[in-house]
Amino acid sequence: MSPILEVKNLFKNYGGTEVLKDINVSIDEGDFLVLVGPSGCGKSTLLNCIAGLEPITRGDMFIDGQNMTNVSPKDRDIAMVFQSYALYPTMSVAKNITFGMKVRGVDQATQDAKLKQVAGQLQIEPLLHRKPGQLSGGQRQRVAMGRALVRDPKLFLFDEPLSNLDAKLRVEMRTEIKALHQNLGASMVYVTHDQIEAMTLATKIVVMKGGIIQQIGSPTEIYNRPANLFVADFMGSPAMNLIPATARKNGKGSKIEIARESGDPIFLIDTKNKDLPENVIIGVRPEDIADAALGRAGKTQEADCLIDIVEPAGADTFAVMQLGGKPVTARLHAETKAAAGTAQRLAFDLGKVSYFEPETGLRLN
Amino acid sequence: MTDMSYSPSRGQSPALKLVLRSILYILLGLFALFYLMPLFVMITTSLKSLDEIRTGDLVSLPREVTFDAWRTAWSGACTGIQCEGVKPFFLNSLLIAVPAVMISTLIGALNGYVVAQWRFKGSNIFFALMLFGCFIPFQVVLLPMARVLGLMGVAGTIPGLIFVHVIYGLGFTTLFFRNYYVSIPSELTKAAKVDGAGFFRIFWSIFLPLSLPIIVVAVIWQFTQIWNDFLFGVSFSQAGTQPVTVALNNIVNSTTGVKEYNVDMAAAIIAALPTLFVYVVAGKYFIRGLTAGSVKG
Ligand SMILES: Nc1ncnc2c1ncn2[C@@H]1O[C@H](COP(=O)(O)OP(=O)(O)O)[C@@H](O)[C@H]1O
Ligand SMILES: [Mg+2]
Question: What residues make up the domain containing B178?
């Protein structure tokens, strides 16, 4: 089976500036691909190129095996939800949803049936006769989704569809979109700058920066094995701790030394990774630094650390300290006794540790 | 929109407020009087008989109201050798203004739509040149235009005059519509493209229905310009195709017989009525259209 979407060596220039550089992505039917990256990295541009709304400078684009590089948007069998929703202001909700079918000459009976089905699915029946101006943000968002859903396309494209909603609604809609994807089994490409959205929704994540793909992988791969410092820092909240350290050969593994301004360095033994260069940046997720007293499964190594700040966050408590000249966050159990200004015994778990080359930022292990 | 009224006298004593208010209204009243005076004189004069004009006072009310002057102005006054009043010329003006307004508004809307939403290579230069067209003085285009009309075989005809006014008005109407459409998010066009709509479908189904305020602006502007035009009218017309402004000039300047001020005034008011009418009917939208900002979905 050919992939539902395949982008090959795509380049996109606006005038003299290269906005997308050598993009290669492909997804299979039923995949939920999330393009994530900071604002201005070219996510929307890539999505517009996939939709055919922006011509591409070089490269090829296949949808369901067919070369779509020079095909107009209406013939690509796609539907798109825009960041601003882009509802037609003078048309009622019902007309907004059926406009695409009307343009394509679908008969009235089918239009009515589809409208009814989608309105039921999204629970917007009472709104059908309203104009977009009379809807709340969340309702507009639903209508925009409805306009895409009636089309039943090969590929759904979403450009930051939740970014204009308030936090609570955003989480609700996120769940709904996930459910929708699971129920429809549809193929989706979803753009967001919010890494939590990316992690929760995606079956496959593309992390972008400056028009270049940094890493492609499943959410777990991206989270556990970030390809470089950018991905490590961007994905995950709080971000991965990236601590400058010195590595020395130690039997089959390495001995890692992390300097501290106050007091002795911390020594950690990594039994799995050898042949590390002397200067490395060690990446440890906050949840891999735990409260030694409260116990934790797995092999850990303990050290006393002076806690600078304690931030209770309900289920967890975050503790911030200085290691290797960087603030380091630990995700502690809510019942921790850690207090600002006091030393706390912490357990470091190197099971999922990442190492990066300080100069290039590339992953070493 | 919330209440935007702003009171400069907030926090002042009621007495002072009243005084300031009174001064304001007195000033406004004086200005209104100043501007209304000529109109008042025109109307009263047009309702007087010639005798009364000769003997009476310029600003006094007519002793005896008569519509004779209006009748003469409409269908009997002499514009040179011909004495049919302004009626045929009024009709000419309508025949010129109505199609010219409609065509220039429609093309301007299409132009604005293209320049704002369908950028092409050089569309900015295209728009800049259109804008430049707004600032070309009438006199400059007279001779080349006469030549073009001759080549097209429409010199001295009403279609010729329509053509001239459409060309001259396009710069303005394009500007109006472009500025209006530029504030409409381009995602709207994109959404419609994905929905399968083409260039004209998007214009017709999405942009035109949004455009009422700016259409009103363009229509008022164009109608006023074209109706009040004298120079093109006098340059590119012949005996049977002159617009009302030219006829009015001929009536007022015709040298035969006594000067009939009442007929002149009536003819002038008749010539001005349509633009007044357009303002009264659509003026409310005019202000709204000029200040209309972004279109919220
Ligand atoms: N029409 C355009 N002309 C020129 N540059 C553009 C245009 N659209 C986007 N860009 C540039 O391309 C880059 C990527 O933009 P975009 O894809 O919108 O980023 P994102 O969606 O990731 O925030 C930005 O630097 C932006 O300034
Ligand atoms: Mg974007």
Answer: 87-291
Q: Closest Cα partner for A125 from A83, A78, A157, A93? A: A93
**Cα–Cα dist B148/B139, whole Å:** 15
Full-model pTM:
0.84
A133 touches chain B (CB under 8 A): yes
Please confirm whether the linkage preceding A219 is cis (ω < 30° from 0): no
Q: What is the CATH code of the structural domain delimited by A241-356?
A: 2.40.50.140
Nearest-angstrom CA–CA distance, A312 and A289:
16
Question: How close is the Cα of A110 to the center of ligand 2, in Å?
Answer: 34
Within a domain: B82: no
May I ask the CATH architecture of the domain A5-234?
3-Layer(aba) Sandwich (3.40)
> Cα A122 vs. chain centroid, distance in angstroms?
25
Q: How many CB atoms lie within 10 A of CB B263?
A: 26
- What lines the ligand 1 site, CB under 6 Å? A 14, 19, 37, 39-45
User: Any CB–CB contact under 8 A between B188 and chain A?
Assistant: yes
Q: Determine the residue of chain B that is closest to A53 in CA distance.
A: B190
Long-range contacts of B202-208 (CB under 8 A, 24+ apart): B202/B117, B203/B109, B203/B110, B203/B113, B205/A88, B205/A91, B205/A99, B206/A88, B206/A90, B207/B109, B207/B113, B207/B117, B207/B181, B208/B109
Concatenating the DSSP letter of every residue in A41-95 gives SSHHHHHHHHHTSS--SEEEEEETTEE-TT--GGGS-EEEE-TT----TTS-HHH
**Type of residue found at A140:** R
Cα dihedral across residues B253, B255, B260, B263: positive or negative: negative
Helix (H) or strand (E) holding A323: strand A316-323
Average pLDDT across each block of 10 residues of chain A; the chain has 365 residues. List them in order: 92 94 96 96 96 95 94 94 93 96 95 95 93 92 94 93 91 92 93 94 96 97 96 94 94 91 88 90 94 75 92 93 94 90 92 94 94
Question: Does one domain contain both B68 and B99?
Answer: no
